[in-house]
Amino acid sequence: MLLTAALLLIASQLPILAAGIAKSGAFRARDHRYDNREPRVWLEQNPDPRRRRANAAQSNSFEALPFLFAAALFALFAHANLTAINGLLVAWIILRCFYIWLYVNDHASLRSLVWSIALAVNIALLFSPFYA
Fold this sequence. Notes:
Layout: H1 2-23, H2 39-44, H3 49-77, H4 82-104, H5 108-127
């Protein structure tokens, strides 16, 4: 159960990873320095498309978390196999890390495929109490 909690904590940090990518090096930049007073405007108007895509990956990562947490909590509540739950959580985290990398590096079609696979893993997690 401790591993499950740790995996959920790791999953919750993926948006922060994407935000870090979006803002990395911007504090030292001479032109278009990071503006903490209006970070959303700064990111939206940033001339670097990688930063804008990392910010979009951050938003999408936040959007993916409620379903993941709901599925994991339901699986735990329904006494699904803990090994299966943890395996699916690890798979989801790996897929979502790859998703962020693909998003930042502008691999749109492959990114969409990985997003779909991560969604399928999440659905499998939701239904894990019924097949193990």
